[in-house]
Design a protein that fits this description.
CATH class: Mainly Alpha
Strand content: under 5%
Number of domains: 1
Shape: elongated
Number of helices: 6
Order of helices and strands: HHHEEHHH
Distance between the termini: 25 Å
Helix content: over 70%
Structural class: mainly alpha
CATH superfamily: VKOR domain
CATH architecture: Up-down Bundle
Largest sheet: 2 strands, antiparallel
């Protein structure tokens, strides 16, 4: 019998706990990647310099009226949300929780981030007709975070 099977038999639910913790840590890693992207874009906005971009329209997106929300760079709002999601995910991973208020909070935050990100993507495509590769990467991260949060919220336990 493999060692992992022995541990699972020794502690009922141990296999689920391992998968649950992995899902939380995956969400934390995705949030960390998003934090990095958002931090870079926030610093670029604060310096008034367009982000370095290859093959996309980052400068046009960064100079658009949608690059700020109530006077604050949109990337800074994303940075704040990624940080809250990351803290929530790390807390959930350390507590080895699945079905909990924390899982519901993570799902709500990820859903909000994904929906707002989809709105910003729509603005880029339909209104600006310019897409920033950094923003697109963040869009993918929000979609993956939403999937991870859904898996955590739906996991048994």
């Amino acid at each position: 019998m493999p060692p992992s099977a022995t541990r699972a038999h020794a502690r009922p639910g141990a296999a689920h706990a391992g998968r649950g913790a992995r899902a939380w840590w995956t969400a934390a890693g995705l949030a960390a990647a998003g934090t990095g992207i958002s931090a870079y874009l926030t610093v670029s906005a604060a310096r008034g310099v367009p982000p370095v971009c290859v093959g996309s329209a980052c400068a046009e997106v960064a100079a658009s009226p949608f690059a700020r929300l109530i006077g604050v760079p949109t990337a800074a709002w994303g940075l704040a949300l990624y940080l809250v999601v990351g803290i929530t995910a790390v807390t959930g991973a350390r507590r080895h929780e699945s079905r909990s208020t924390l899982a519901t909070v993570l799902f709500g935050l990820a859903a909000f981030g994904a929906v707002f990100s989809a709105y910003l993507l729509w603005l880029q495509v339909a209104v600006l007709r310019a897409v920033c590769v950094w923003c697109a990467a963040s869009d993918v991260l929000w979609a993956l975070l939403l999937i991870s949060a859904l898996r955590i919220a739906r996991s048994p336990g």
